[in-house]
């Protein structure tokens, strides 16, 4: 079997060229600023389908399947939430910490034998400050039976990015290892533990981890488009079917905008963790951004980022990219002047650094800042 490795540059090369997108159905009030943002993603950026869900309203543009007139799915449509999965994993890790079964200062090597000689701690993994190299760019995407141990070995074949705790670098390897730690501590698959501590208590019935070998999306969903990392020479194609189980604790969850909004609201309402623990997760953070992916003055904590808003203040959430989609959004906590707000924005192809990603970020900002917030 020929190994087709996907470099970091190629991961973002999910070009839209050749993916036909019909003009968005304008529906709703023409003056609605969120509607205008969602329409722009389709009409100007050429995204096949786009959706923004605020809880009070669902904004849709484009089509659920390129080349057809099928309307874009609603807030109950299934979508691979990619790196938004990290927020679920981090909450599960914090649950272990609160239960006294794990410590932020524990060395990862106490639970993961391959890291026995490493100084990396649980805190540094959560906060993306471990210096562990990225494994995704080294993966063989055709090896659907590869394991987390295989992926960790790929990462450890590279030189560390920096000494643990001395810098920040986003790496899926950090959450790969956290999934392995959950399994070592609990004796269960990390997926089972996340289900038991996060998904089921909140009644997120549409959220699930794909089974081994499962490539299709369950239930209503849009088609996704981009360049397959398993066959980049084929150019843009339908990527709705992917080996989701392979993406693991760092990016494997499937959910819906409805469920994702419910997760953020429950987390900040104290339903999953004590408020002080959520404060720690969001405020023990590194300032990042300005790289084309994260806006300037983005701060990254324990699997939760915070982003500045044009209307002032910050919202808390995450983003996720796969070759076939991008999901952004999060929660703006309430104040005396106004209630809290939550939004999920989804496009059916990866938003590369550039105008489309900027427009996605502006859609989130517009939804959270609406009505002069």
UniProtKB/TrEMBL annotation:
Residues 1-25 form the signal peptide. InterPro entries: AmpC-like, Beta-lactam-related, Beta-lactam/transpept-like. Pfam families: Beta-lactamase. This is Class A beta-lactamase-related serine hydrolase. Residues 35-355 form the Beta-lactamase-related domain. GO terms for molecular function: hydrolase activity. The keyword S-adenosyl-L-methionine does not apply. The keyword Transmembrane does not apply. Keywords: Hydrolase, Signal. It comes from the Bacteria. PANTHER family: D-ALANYL-D-ALANINE CARBOXYPEPTIDASE (PTHR46825:SF7), D-ALANYL-D-ALANINE-CARBOXYPEPTIDASE/ENDOPEPTIDASE AMPH (PTHR46825).
């Amino acid at each position: 079997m020929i190994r087709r490795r996907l470099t970091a540059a190629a991961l973002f090369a999910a070009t839209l060229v050749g993916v036909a997108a019909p003009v968005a159905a304008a529906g709703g009030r023409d003056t609605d600023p969120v509607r205008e943002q969602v329409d722009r993603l389709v009409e100007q950026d050429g995204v096949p389908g786009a959706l923004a869900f605020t809880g009070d309203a669902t904004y849709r543009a484009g089509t659920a399947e390129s080349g057809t007139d099928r309307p874009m799915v609603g807030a109950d449509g299934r979508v691979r939430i990619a790196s938004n999965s990290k927020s679920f994993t981090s909450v599960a890790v914090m649950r272990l910490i609160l239960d006294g079964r794990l410590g932020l200062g524990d060395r990862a090597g106490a639970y993961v034998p391959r890291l026995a000689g490493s100084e990396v701690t649980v805190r540094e993994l959560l906060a993306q400050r471990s210096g562990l190299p990225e494994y995704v760019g080294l993966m063989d995407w055709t090896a659907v039976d590869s394991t987390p141990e295989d992926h960790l070995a790929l990462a450890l074949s590279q030189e560390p990015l920096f000494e643990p705790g001395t810098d920040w670098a986003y790496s899926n390897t950090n959450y790969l290892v956290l999934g392995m730690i959950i399994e070592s501590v609990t004796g269960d698959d990390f997926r089972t533990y996340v289900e038991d501590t996060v998904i089921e208590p909140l009644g997120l019935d549409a959220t699930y981890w794909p089974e081994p070998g499962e490539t299709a999306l369950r239930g209503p969903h849009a088609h996704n488009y981009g360049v397959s990392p398993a066959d980049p020479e084929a150019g843009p194609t339908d990527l709705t079917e992917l080996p989701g189980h392979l993406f693991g604790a760092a990016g494997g969850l499937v959910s819906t905008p409805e469920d994702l909004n419910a997760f953020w609201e429950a987390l900040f309402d104290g339903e999953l963790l004590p408020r002080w623990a959520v404060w720690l997760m969001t405020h023990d953070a590194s300032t990042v951004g300005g790289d084309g992916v994260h806006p300037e003055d983005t701060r990254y904590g324990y699997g939760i980022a915070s982003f500045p808003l044009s209307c002032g203040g910050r919202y808390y959430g995450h983003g996720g990219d796969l070759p076939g989609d991008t999901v952004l959004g999060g929660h703006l906590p309430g104040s005396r002047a106004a209630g809290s707000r939550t939004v999920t924005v989804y496009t059916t192809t990866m938003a590369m650094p550039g105008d489309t990603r900027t427009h996605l970020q502006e859609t989130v900002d517009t939804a959270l800042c609406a009505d002069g917030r």
